[in-house]
Amino acid sequence: MDRLALLLVIIGALNWGLIGLFRFDLVAALLGGQASILSRIVYSLVGLAGAYSISFLFREREKVR
């Protein structure tokens, strides 16, 4: 679950980088526009993954030797 959340957060971050730098929304371009149901699903999953990833900040880390 953690890796899936991280993957979705990375996708969202890259998409926001493209929007910020080039005014290009890759998710919308690939899935039929911002209002398409597929785009909305991806945006929702990225948002949920971001909310889930907040828990990473409060977890104990294992020390690697």
UniProtKB/TrEMBL annotation:
<dbReference type="Pfam" id="PF04070">
    <property type="entry name" value="DUF378"/>
</dbReference>
<feature type="transmembrane region" description="Helical">
    <location>
        <begin position="37"/>
        <end position="58"/>
    </location>
</feature>
<keyword id="KW-0472">Membrane</keyword>
<keyword id="KW-1133">Transmembrane helix</keyword>
<feature type="transmembrane region" description="Helical">
    <location>
        <begin position="7"/>
        <end position="31"/>
    </location>
</feature>
<protein>
    <recommendedName>
        <fullName>DUF378 domain-containing protein</fullName>
    </recommendedName>
</protein>
<dbReference type="InterPro" id="IPR007211">
    <property type="entry name" value="DUF378"/>
</dbReference>
<keyword id="KW-0812">Transmembrane</keyword>
